[in-house]
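Researcher: Please generate the 3D structure of the following complex. Treat every line as part of one assembly.
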Amino acid sequence: MKRIDLSRNRGCRLRAVLVVALMLCASMAFGQPQPISGTLSAIGSDTMAGLTLRWAEALTNRYPGISVQFQATGSASVPPALTAGTTRLGPMSRPMSAEERQAFIDRYGYPPLALRVAKDALVLVVHRHNPLNAITRQQADAIFSTDQACGAPSPIRRWSELPATHDWSYGHIALHGRNLASGTHGLFQAEVLCGGRFRPDISEHPGSSAVVAAVGESPNAMGYAGYNHLTPMVHALRLITQDGTEIAPTEQTIQRNEYPLARNLYLYVNLPPGESLPPADQAFLALILSEEGQQIARAAGFVPLPESELITQRAW
Amino acid sequence: MIPPRAPVSHQPLRQLKNRIATSLITAGGIGVLLAILAIGVFLIWETLPLLSLDETFALTKLSPLAWGTLKAALAAMLFALPIALGAAMYSALFMSARLRSRIKPALEMMEAIPGVVIGFIAGLVLAPWVERNLASTLMVLVWLPLSAGLAGVLWHLLSSRLRQALPLSWAGLWLVPWIAGMLLLALWFAPLLETLLPGGDLRQLLEQRWGLDYATRNALIVGIAMGFAVIPSIYALAEDALADVPDTLMEGAHALGASRWQALWKVALPAAGPGIFSAVMIGAGRAVGETMIVLMASGNTALLSASPFEGMRSMAAAIAIELPEASPGGLTYRYLILAALVLFVFTFLVNTLAEMVRLRMRRRYQKAGRH
Amino acid sequence: MPRRLTAAPQRLLDRLWPWLCAASVALSLLMLTALLSLLLVRGLGHFWPATLEEVTLRSGEVVAGEAIRETPLPQQAGDERLYFTGNRDVAGASWRWVPVDDIAQRTTPEDLVRLTRTPWGDFIGRLVSVESDGERLEGQPAWDYLTAALALPANQRPAGALLLATADGQTLRQPLTNISGATAPNAMAWWQKTHTWGERVWQFLSQGPRAANTRGGVWPAIFGTVLMVILMSVIVTPFGVLAAIYLNEIAHQNRLTRLVRIGVRNLAGVPSIVYGVFGLGVFVYGIGGSLDSWFFSDTLPSPTFGTGGLLWASLTLALLTLPVVIVATEEGLARIPDAQREGAVALGATRLEMLVRIVLPMAVPAMLTGVILAVARAAGEVAPLMLVGVAKLAPQMPVDGEFPYLHLERKFMHLGYHLFDTAFHGEDVQAAMPLVYATALLLVLIVLMLNLTAIFLRHYFRRQRGNEC
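Model: Done. Output below.
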């Protein structure tokens, strides 16, 4: 869990005065309304910690009066916190389940506002010199699972068993993944293994970037990680769909939900119907859904929402 | 002349203060000791509910972890023992006193390097390098001891003046460049040697001939990294034990015509045996409980394999990554606490054994010194 | 004669084994030096303004960037070199692998600049012009204007925009407000580079992390580590000394005391992670949970003390280092000759007076050594902290101007955990590597310094005592 308070940027009192004075000039220059102040607190996803922080950084740069606190306790902690009223904003890397939503409605009588704020994807990665470029989901399942729940005929253990890497001189496939506690682990299990069981000899790393680093160092390795962790050491595999088309995890395919392992990132807001949010929260939402906020998401390695979706989301 | 003071018993305030303070210290002392001992009680208390559950669950979950812990510790000991004991023997028996007073603290500083730093170097720097240069690494492991022997042979062939310039009692220092040079030689030579192998690639050979898979983070890496971490504690204790052997014993052995080798093997080692044993035990205890190095360098695969080129998952690492996410009171929580209990009991027993042996030895020397 | 036959290999052994032993010492020293110099070179080298290269490939493509490292290509096809090229917004990636054999020309033009920006990270390319207040500057005046503007505090900089060009000719506009630093390393003299190096080292030590821990400094982590260690020593010293006095001065020296003593000594060998489990189960979930339900029930279910925090971390580490302090203090107490105690009592002192005036002052050096050893051990411990209160990012310092000033329930950052986190959880490990090295170096330096102090103190006091005798 992390608490983030960007109020430290404000520095000492003298500087705060200067800042206010300058903010006046800056707000004129940027055509902004009066400076907004207040405290904004959010509890939420671990995956989105970096992204939320960058948004918060940008927000406090623009409105130094706002201080942001963020605790990254994981997506699972958002629904209870929202329901209990501990927080008004909750970034989540998955949608709320029906029960979580119902619990919120039971307490307040209205559903929480769910905003899609960016897109992310799970990617399969191999070493940058690996000749393998595309893979079917069944093959991935046969590589990573013991029970082939997606219907592959036999497990795949060696590179020579994949057609594309038949002549690849490295023997067995070394597997890398996340540890049990992470959401990525669960998502991969549900989406790629069809709910089956992981092989026991997968190296379980405590972070996505550790997975990517490990795969980037060994030519015979394959692993899965979040899209935002891709580095030049590895390349992401294209997924072959049922009708035989290959889809690479690129910004376009993820944006259009064509890439099968794409997912939305959400921001849940406790907003009573007919009321408006405090100015600080409003400014935060406006920033996230603005062009600048989406560029920040891109810079953090995620995929911005497509323009059409952005417009519908802005209409909250 | 100092005026005589009233006896203590006639100063009720002082007496009272003394009594109160004594009982406070007693209470505080016992309290602290109880707090420390509460660790064991807590761990047992929290694992009790597991007994009422299906017993096989904990066992199946725990056995790969226990195996991984032992494998990691074993690998570390294989790497650390020869180096630590060799260093201890050298610095207790041969090293010049001046060098010893410098080298010993330096080696003890090794112990201070945090595990997380060693783990980071092992996992992100050493492991990829070893994977790319497996042949060189194995070659180095074989070649370094040989080159040390070679240094000895060459030294005996030197002219006596050079021998005096490079005395054995300072060899620990001037051998450093020699070892470094030999290391570079091995690194340069190994790829040439590897091309002579059938297939020209060691990893392929390992895989095809013996079916050995190679994982980037494996027992070899963990052994080297954790070995590095436990060398200093084994060295310090073993060196103390050897240095404690009364000189009279060694001198007697030499007087009776024993060679240095015989004196060491037949006199010094048996005499210091218990001390060395306790050093090894304490080193093993450290290796079993070290968390960050295994977490960062082992790959955390819960496998029951004995291959030095495959990873493992240790109990300590499993606790560190899974316990913060486990809900208190749940099954995972309890079995992780059981793992902690196993670690606690194991290290406690090992250390107690080592301590008892050490105390007994010390008593024996006190006797020997008196005679 | 069988004796002769066995004698020859034995003579050889007799000659050679000392060399094997000597080589062990040499090897240990070599490993230690190698580790330290690796950290030093990589950790400090990161802050040096690196030379920027402009590389023309055989295909005619131009790449500008900093060369990071080289690795062999598969099938003995030569080497490839990794360049950090920056410009993620233009190129889509800020890294580029270039096969060395494909390079036609390699130059280091002096007009290449490297800008630090938000949110897109570094820019590497050329400065075309600066536009400010309707004015347009080019060439050297533009560069001078930029450096002058960047020397101002962030909120006093003039509004304006830079026109930049990448090495392959694309141009982009960048508002001045997004730029936080600019260097032209190829044009710098060594003393300018040294100056920049010093500045960057200072920034690393004094600033908080930026862009989700991938840049910026480690000040909150240093602060958190130090504060936690101070709190820990405040807790551990009195209790450790109390227990040692009890064990050595008050308890009857019987079998039970001996057993307890062995038990305490052995707890020093119990893995730190076990203490972490204890801290989580007892302090956080047990005591913290109860505190929450009694005093902070209005904020439940979000926990106040029922989650890891500074207080619980310090307590856990205090428990972990208690045996160290007890053992060291006891050794000091045991070294005081009984004649001193007997003399004091014979002169009419009560036990309390004897302890406070005679025994404790003589044992101070031992206690000090014990505490410093405890601090050194605690500063390098990470595993138990992962369970009881360390955070990936907590720029909200545990000490601030808000009442009650010291927030014991807050999470804190720790150098060791920061190192682990940036190396394994960060967004781009390749980019974070230099920072990881620098953090590792800092941690090692802090811990070594504490240990050296302890060794020096022990040595000093021992010698002083030796003179007395």
